[in-house]
Amino acid sequence: MTPDVHISIVSYNTAELLDNCLTALESHESVATFTVTVIDNGSRDGTVDMVRSRHPNVAVIESGANLGYGRANNFALLNSDARYYLILNSDTIVHDGALDAMVEALDTHPEYGAVGGALLNPDGSPQTTWAAGKLDLAAVLLEQTYLAKLFPRSRRFGAYFEGWADRTKDAAIEQSCGACMMVRADLFNQLGGFDPRIFMYAEDTDLSKRIRDRGLGIAYVASARVTHHHGQSSGGAIRPRMIFEHNRSRIYYFLKHESPAVATTARAIMVAGALLRGLLWLGASVTGRRGALANASSFFVVAAQTALVRVSVPRRKGGEQCA
Q: Is pLDDT at 319 greater than 90 in this prediction?
């Protein structure tokens, strides 16, 4: 029998978090039927052995290398057997009823192509550090100048994260967070899944954009409660590689969906943002703040990498951009 949901979880050196995530799923109370696949991106912390010994009913795919988030999910999900696909982070805990809530939303709203869960901080408060609004130059500028962080509840400055939104109510949103995103399986397959050229970050933004380009909506489901240990699946500290990948993915997104001029402007803003942060940390190092000099160096590296990286969007014959 075809399951209602196929859950895909990508893991990279997150054995303990993944263990907790799978344990919660195995005790999850739901009417919806589901299967789970873990894609291990070359972990060195015993992730594969842990899953096979503690969670024998979970399928494991060993990629052998860090494929990135989107490509790994594609490997597990594309053309697999289910009505819906759930992309889930390894640093999440799905609460009872969450799967049913998302399945019901898609069952009863054919105009939705995808839905997202209500992400919570470990203390149970609503998590507002995921993007629900439109990615545009204004969003990049407000983020890089700290205005979005200083005024998160402002409709003008906090539009990208929608910090002003009532997270207790269902709502139409511009994009769903890839930490917990349920998509119609046939739609995901038709779209070719995540864009494999995005290593990580913005792959959910890109998929959401392509879903909306099909004339379908995306919704936030308030009753689909999911605890998210934000940042733990990719490392919580300041890491130049992660920040750089974030910037590169955005340049690619703007090249793909906007224009070279917009992408160039976004690149300049992000370079300036990295330099600003580097200078602030450099100033903090003068006061003797521990680790400040290393952080300053990290941001200067990110600024150089973002300025120099070559990004292109492959095109099909006839000049059309690839999906």
A: no
